[in-house]
Design brief:
This protein has one domain (4-97). α1 packs across α2. The protein has 2 helices and 2 strands, in the order ββαα. It is 69% helix and 16% strand. β1 (4-11) and β2 (14-21) form a beta hairpin. Strands 1-2 form a two-stranded antiparallel ribbon. The model has no long low-confidence stretch (mean pLDDT 89).
């Protein structure tokens, strides 16, 4: 059982106290830093003054990245799986002949 840690995460100038597994602490801290960096990027590049709009755009960008990775994974896995199945069949046929 993982040990629980109390941490404070800062996102968009707000502090969020969390109780998390020790194994999650580093990932959450890194994620909050990425969100803050993305917020600053949106604020610098676009005339957005409302934090909610900036946070919505951050959420959309992160969700789009996850979805794109899933699409790429599916696209790659299909042909790879087929090739591996063919190779496995060839090997099985070869071994059965011996």
């Amino acid at each position: 059982m993982s040990e629980k840690q109390k941490i404070k995460i800062s996102i968009a100038d707000r502090v969020y106290p969390l109780t998390v597994d020790a194994s999650q602490e580093e990932g959450l801290i890194n994620a909050s830093k990425k969100i803050d960096a993305m917020i600053k990027q949106f604020e610098q590049n676009y005339a957005v003054r409302d934090k909610q709009d900036v946070l919505a755009m951050c959420a959309l960008q992160f969700a789009a990245q996850v979805e794109q990775k899933q699409i790429e994974k599916t696209t790659i896995e299909g042909p790879t799986k087929t090739k591996l199945e063919r190779l496995n069949n060839l090997l099985t046929e070869h071994l059965d002949k011996q």
